[in-house]
Specification:
This protein has one domain: HybD-like (Rossmann fold, 3-Layer(aba) Sandwich). 36% of the residues lie in helices and 19% in strands. It is built from five helices and five strands; from the N terminus they run αβαβαββαβα. Strands 2-1-3-5-4 form a five-stranded mixed beta sheet, with helices on one face. The two termini are 17 Å apart.
Length: 160
């Protein structure tokens, strides 16, 4: 998690307003990783310039709200298969998802990011949490839940 902390610190340097967008489905076990992280963030007093949005499986429905916030920085968090052990957090390069749907969601993430960026330029960071299982109806695994909670702590520490 120390590597992620360094990445976040560098990414957020000079940030004006930041939007944290959680993506995922609570119906598919560890696909809820981003949602779990967002819920942990929302339990805390957040800085005025930091907004948390729950995109669930249709983050494109929040494009208007994101554009209205005019963020300088966008952090997207979702479950992502990066070949690591369950619960490990990684940075997903936007170039690596070019033309491909991201996780289990409808709109390709690169299209989503490009659309959001049209109104005002912003920096984007995609954080992926390695799922253990994406079985429909299963509970989020202990590894992924703990990782999502730890990521929220790291984000809050970085913001303060």
């Amino acid at each position: 998690m120390e590597d992620i902390k360094k990445v976040l610190k560098e990414f957020l340097r000079g940030a004006g307003s930041v939007v944290f967008l959680a993506i995922g489905s609570e119906l598919r076990a560890d696909d809820a990783a981003g949602i779990e992280c967002a819920k942990e963030l929302l339990k805390n007093k957040l800085p005025e310039n930091f907004k948390v949005l729950l995109g669930f499986t249709a983050p494109e429905n929040l494009t208007g709200e994101i554009r209205k916030a005019k963020p300088t920085h966008l952090i997207i968090c979702d479950a992502a298969n990066s070949g690591l052990s369950a619960g490990k957090t990684s940075v997903i390069e936007t170039e690596s998802i070019d033309g491909a749907a991201f996780s289990t969601h409808m709109m390709p993430m690169n299209v989503f990011i490009n659309y959001i960026s049209q109104s005002s330029p912003l920096k984007t960071l995609i954080l992926g949490i390695q799922p253990k299982t994406l079985d429909f109806g299963a509970e989020i695994s202990k590894e992924v839940k703990k990782s999502a909670q730890n990521l929220a702590v790291v984000i809050l520490e970085t913001l303060s």
